[in-house]
Design brief:
Organism: Herbaspirillum robiniae
InterPro entries: Cyt_c-like_dom, Cyt_c-like_dom_sf
Low-confidence stretches: 336-350
Order of helices and strands: HEEEHHHHEHHHHHHEEEEEHEEHHEE
Keywords: Heme, Iron, Membrane, Metal-binding, Transmembrane, Transmembrane helix
Bound molecules: heme C
Strand order of the largest sheet: 5-11-10-7-8-9-6
Protein name: Cytochrome c
Mean pLDDT: 86
Number of strands: 13
Helix content: 40-55%
Pfam family, one: Cytochrome_CBB3
Strand content: 5-15%
CATH architecture of the largest domain: 3-Layer(aba) Sandwich
Shape: globular
Largest sheet: 7 strands, mixed
Number of helices: 14
Oligomer: single chain
Length: 374
């Protein structure tokens, strides 16, 4: 239901734009209303969702009666009366529970997607414009921040995952509370790059603090140079699992039929294992350093695994894979995995990549942003 609500709003906005009824802001159709539908309360309180469904049911029934009235002349008066009564008596849930304040850019999405180049570009701008208040780790414990009447929020908490990207974008462009507006200092691409960087950095700070990715982070899109396959960037592999191997393509590594492999920080095909594709671009390595909270020179030997939906899920620092390498899992699945490991010894294929892939596939990422499950 939440997904349907979100898709309906997006489709409605496209339709308005197509009919020239919605203006444009920064190259994308602008949301023309002060509110948007939001699932935030419904995710916590099912009864609000049920009330909304019931109200929609009443409305559908009223429409059906009105249609019948059109077709069935003799019963027109009572049918119309019934439809009107239904419409008037529909018990809509309180508007505050199903809507949230909206900005013209609430439904904007990043045109650069989440790319390594954009993350690195964002890092440079962040260090110039934002670090004084928000700090390198985004936690906002800087002297300048503590002097503000309202302290900045912790950007490495779940904030960037809860809010819609378009709403964060609006805050950056037009300011919020104690934060100045940056619309005349930063262009559109700079602003999106900052959002990409803040997400990547929050993931790295999460690893440094807790040893896991507390919230899902995507595999950044990276340019590829492949010897045999025709792939030009990792985004083309959506629907397939991807493994990144940093700096070392040792014997016994090479290609694996279950995954697409990419070598970072070394030319493709040169090393022993002969992984076909490499991303030699400096941004790729830098972006991975940010996301893993690890200095680039300490990354050699690291491998990362992304699932079929493009979420980074596991990291190994060399050696065989084990279940402990899974850094991004749902709270439910981590409970189950803990129970499993105490109950039964693993299957033969277990150690290693096989069971990790099985665990990853069995526990797909479903995360919530702006009150909607993605
Ligand atoms: C003068 C200090 C200052 C600077 C510079 C600054 N911020 Fe902020 N930022 C704040 C404060 C204060 C808030 C809290 C605003 C509020 O919610 O009232 C904030 C909030 C935010 C938020 C949360 C917005 C939301 O919608 O809740 C984001 C994201 C953010 N800042 C990113 C940035 C980025 C990126 C930059 C650099 C381009 C930056 N900030 C520069 C002080 C600053």
């Amino acid at each position: 239901m939440l997904r349907a609500m979100q898709v309906t709003q997006q489709a409605g906005l496209q339709l308005l734009a197509w009919l020239h009824l919605a203006g444009e802001v920064d190259g994308q159709p602008a949301w023309p209303f002060a509110l948007r539908l939001s699932g935030e309360v419904m995710l916590i309180d099912r009864s609000v969702a049920r009330a909304l469904l019931a109200a929609l049911g009443y409305t559908a029934a009223a429409l059906l009666l009105a249609l019948l009235a059109l077709l069935w002349r003799r019963a027109r008066v009572p049918l119309c009366a019934l439809a009107t009564a239904l419409l008037l008596l529909t018990p809509w849930p309180d508007a505050g529970l199903v809507t949230a304040p909206a900005h013209p850019t609430s439904f904007h999405v990043s045109p650069a997607a989440f790319s390594a180049a954009s993350i690195v570009r964002g890092e440079r701008i962040y260090q110039r414009q934002c670090i004084a208040c928000h700090g390198a780790d985004g936690k906002g414990n800087t002297p300048q921040a503590l002097a503000l009447p309202v302290a900045p929020p912790n950007l490495s908490s779940g904030l960037l995952w809860r809010r819609q990207d378009g709403d964060i974008y609006w805050s950056l462009r037009h300011g919020k509370g104690g934060m100045p507006a940056f619309a005349d200092k930063l262009d559109v691409a700079d602003s999106w790059a900052l959002i990409d960087y803040m997400k990547a950095n929050a993931a790295g700070v999460g690893i440094a603090d807790t040893g896991t990715w507390p919230r899902p982070v995507a595999l950044p899109d990276m340019p590829l140079a492949c010897l045999h396959s025709g792939a030009a960037h990792t985004g083309q592999w959506r629907g397939q699992r991807v493994r990144l191997v940093v700096g070392r393509d040792g014997p016994g590594q090479g290609e694996d039929p279950r995954l697409q492999s990419v070598l970072l920080g070394a030319p493709a095909g040169e090393a022993v294992g002969a992984i076909d594709c490499a991303s030699t671009n400096a941004d790729s390595l830098r972006a991975i350093a940010i996301i893993t909270g690890t200095a680039p020179d300490k990354l050699a030997g690291t491998e990362l695994l992304a699932d079929r939906d493009g979420w980074l899920r596991a990291r190994s620092s060399g050696g065989a894979w084990s279940q402990a390498d899974m850094l991004c899992r749902s709270p439910l699945a981590s409970g189950a995995a803990a129970a499993d490991s105490t109950a039964a010894p693993s299957a033969p294929d277990a150690g290693g990549l096989g069971s990790l892939i099985a665990a990853m596939d069995a526990d797909p990422v479903r995360f919530i942003k702006g009150g909607f499950v993605h």
